[in-house]
Amino acid sequence: MQTLTSKNPQKDNELLVQKRTADIKNKAFELGFSIIGFASPYPTLKQSSEMRKFIAEGMQGDMDWLAKRLEARISPKVLWPETRTIISLGLNYGPKDNPLQGLSFPSRGVISVYARGGDYHDVIKSKTKHLAKWLISQYGGDAKIFVDTAPVMEKPIAQKAGIGWQGKHTNLVSREFGSWLFLGEIFTNLKLEISRPSKDRCGKCIKCINICPTDAIDNFGKINTKKCISYLTIEYKGHISSKYRKAMGNRIYGCDDCLAVCPWNKFGSQTNESRFIPKPEMSLPRITELLALDDTTFRSRFSKSPIKRIGRDRFIRNVLIAAGNSNDQSLVIPVYSKLRDRSSLVRAMAVWALGCLSLNKALDAKKKFFSEEMDQDVIREWKSIKNL
What we know:
By secondary structure, this protein is of the alpha+beta class. The protein is built from 17 helices and 9 strands. It folds into 2 domains: about 1-95 and about 115-190, no CATH class; about 285-388, no CATH class.
């Protein structure tokens, strides 16, 4: 969050409100934003009750930050009492190809579309800050900018601002851009014209529900976060349950299945933001290359990527699950080398992956490594390796 201030706010007559709203739209498009809308800072009763229920049921899992400052998350007026209008901004990151195609290459890792290019936080923050500074220079007032770094319920705000609606997969869906929008917000104490909220246009479609590999989405469009592959591979810090590993396939960071299958994507288009174009090393990287990463090479490879946030050990945990699902015998040796890794998170998944690739090799390794293992989670994985 960043506050920008001017001491010369102009009067809020109707014509001025209309003009500055139109001017802000034009400036946003000039800066490269794909869509913009304006919402009131008051939450709906439904939005408030659903968020409270979500937290009460512990559905946030390891995402403890969702429960912190809950009242501010629910009500923007608690976050900043002076807020009169929220400017909701969307930036298209639509991929060139269908992300589901990558699932057909089991010896390569699939990274979520949003993480294949430059870090979206940096891109959107720069544009949002520029727009906020321009707004204050033109019309005065104060502004605070948010880009996924504060207790702001971005998707409900975007729906109120007419940018899109929350689909059954709980992600935002746009008539113009499908499921591929990054979001940012400007809170301002200036009065602006409020947009008409978006209507839910999912209808009877349940494609996102049906495609979910772990059945994380129920028939009412509620997501069980703890089963979601995006949560498991990005937010979850522990040992991923064996009941989800096969379903993960070669997804090593995030999951785009429910986004990719949305019929509204037919109206979308490839992003024209150059910093969102996938980097070569992020497009289906070879699992064997990723398994060779140590702390230093991991930080170097993902220095300007959101992947860096989860750390090397959790990332290699994910890669090892992909290796175990690959049926690629060339991965036996690099997987075997991880049985002595300093991280128990890595060692445990190396045991599982080796057992999937070669039971005989895993049984031989068990004789060598089992007796010296001290970590109970790794021991549990070794115990699961048995003669058939």
